[in-house]
Automatic annotation (TrEMBL):
Top-level lineage group: Bacteria
UniProt keywords, alphabetically: Membrane, Transmembrane, Transmembrane helix
Protein name: Putative membrane protein
Domain DUF2061 as annotated: residue spans: 31-82
Keyword Transmembrane helix: yes
Pfam families, per the entry: DUF2061 (PF09834)
Organism: Aquimarina intermedia
TM spans (from-to): 47-76
Length: 88
């Protein structure tokens, strides 16, 4: 009986922790992560585009479009994954 009570208390404590963890990712945090990751990704795209084309203007254009589109996609990807309870 005492063991059952201890187990129930531990489960309740974990559930509370889980609830805090499952909602801790705010949209602002997702945006900050998206921007920081896109800066790294865009520098990579800029370098690769320049190596392949040899033209900095074209490489910059490609990297600019890449920055905007992939940042938007990443934000929605993060928000969707935040809704999935699997692995939390």
């Amino acid at each position: 009986m005492i063991l059952d009570q201890m187990i129930l208390e531990k489960v309740a404590a974990k559930k509370t922790t889980y609830q805090k963890d499952s909602v801790s990712e705010s949209p602002v945090r997702s945006i900050a992560k998206a921007v920081s990751w896109r800066v790294i990704g865009t520098l990579d795209t800029l370098l690769i585009s320049y190596i392949l084309t040899g033209e900095i203007v074209l490489a910059t254009s490609i990297a600019s479009v890449d920055f905007v589109t992939k940042m938007i996609l990443y934000f929605f990807h993060e928000r969707l994954w935040n809704l999935i309870k699997w692995g939390k």
